[in-house]
Design goal:
Layout: E1 2-6, H1 10-21, E2 25-29, H2 33-52, H3 58-66, E3 68-71, E4 83-86, H4 92-103, E5 109-112, H5 119-123, E6 132-136, E7 146-151, H6 157-169, E8 173-178, H7 185-201, H8 207-218, H9 224-231, H10 233-247, H11 255-262, E9 275-276, E10 283-284
Helix pairs in contact: 1-2, 2-3, 7-9, 7-10
Amino acid sequence: MRIAVVGGGTMGVGIAHRFAAHGAVVHVVDIDRPAAESAVRRVHETLRTAETRGKLSSDRTSTAIGNVSAVGSIDELETALDLIIEAVIEDPDLKRTILGAAQEREPNVLASNTSSISIDLLAEGLKRPERFAGMHFFNPVWAMHLVEVIKGAKTSADTLETITSMVEGLGMEQALITDSPGFATSRLGVLVGIEAIRMVEQGVAEPAEIDRAMRLGYGHPMGPLVLGDLVGLDVRLKIAEHLAGVYGERFEPPELLRTMVEEGNLGKKSGSGFYDWSTGSARPIEKI
């Protein structure tokens, strides 16, 4: 399989890792070649870490590293790739610009990793919308085994069948969702997450207590606040704002979330959010 990932951020790196680890040739595209090369180096690092942890053999790691390359622009991609997937920030205009350029490379499947934006909205203006669908991966992609596959109004059965085969080839499972803003996972996850933030804002409980309650009381693998830190509070805010615009005030972001993002407390990637991540793992903060 030969694919391209457009966007060299956290999700793009994770998607590239997952495909490369399962034998695909992967081209990583970013705003320019140096940015793409930086993203490829991060993919190589994650692959080597997987080898160190016993997740990949030495031979498989070497092959995967050799199969990941940097490309400076979408126009430089070869034509007729099996898949081009965009994985940039949740900005509809930016995504549509990228998808419009990517369709000119005539991939078999064109996909978006959007976690909340309507697939039908992103499909507007595409020449072959039947080949387009959502493929929403979860962070960290190498450890999370779900792909939320979003079927647009014009997505063909052949495209969905091809995506199903790809997902299985990655050792993952899919949840097939009909297009609706927020889909299933973001719509539910963000609602729980912002309510947990409101509880912190109102002094109901500290983050660690809320997370412990959800882990032990509901069997969640992690609580909503530590999950928000891992996803990125800026990402959480952007999704909540988008969903509030669609569904109304129940998705309106709490003021505490806006303040934390404004102050640069974005979660793990910034070193601090609802938890202190300075050591690489979550440690409770005395007072938010």
